[in-house]
Amino acid sequence: xxxxxxxxxxxxxxxxxxxxxxxxxxxxxxxxxxxxxxxxxxxxxxxxxxxxxxxxxxxxxxxxxxxxxxxxxxxxxxxxxxxxxxxxxxxxxxxxxxxxxxxxxxxxxxxxxxxxxxxxxxxxxxxxxxxxxxxxxxxxxxxxxxxxxxxxxxxxxxxxxxxxxxxxxxxxxxxxxxxxxxxxxxxxxxxxxxxxxxxxxxxxxxxxxxxxxxxxxxxxxxxxxxxxxxxxxxxxxxxxxxxxxxxxxxxxxxxx
Length: 256
Prior knowledge:
By secondary structure, this protein is of the alpha/beta class. The chain is built from 10 helices and 7 strands. The protein has helices at 6-20, 35-44, 62-71, 82-91, 128-137, 156-161, 173-182, 194-210, 212-219, 221-240, and strands at 52-56, 74-79, 97-101, 112-117, 138-150, 185-192, 244-252.
């Protein structure tokens, strides 16, 4: 059965997402990050006027549009979803934003000041080709800002419980930092967002339950059930310490 495109998902979930976040914190993101957290990370990565930003797996680019509008930058978003990029382009009119449809990895052949990867590191089992491509795309002194689900790999039972578990690959922070170091990226800043993201996950569960009938009319009951199951698991894992949600900024070591 063909799944609805991102345009349909975005419209169907919008009311629930608006209800799930604290007032003023929803900016079109498809993640647990809040407006405040997105801007804090971007500032730590020194995003500002004249800074070139490459946003990998940008989706409908709520965070990218926010960063461009609030901080000023030359923004380029990349995502493999045609429908997500269509939404992003429509909402970015008047901003210095470019978008393209492409699979990641490979990382586009470019040189930029900042690479963003928000709420997507989880989806890559083998993270080495992605990290190497990001490092190659950064100018010396460039910054890589991302979020990561820190923890051990899923057990067999957890894989069975989590919908789409083939895109759920947590990583231990020491292991990730070692891989980042191998490609020439040094840790610059890290912040634990676990408590905040658990609150958002709980808010999404409540909002999805309240809007279940309306959302199911657009997406189907199976999709709503999967969303509820996934968000309940994330809440439980973050609440128990099984998973920590981290925001990280690294810097490319200048040669010479």
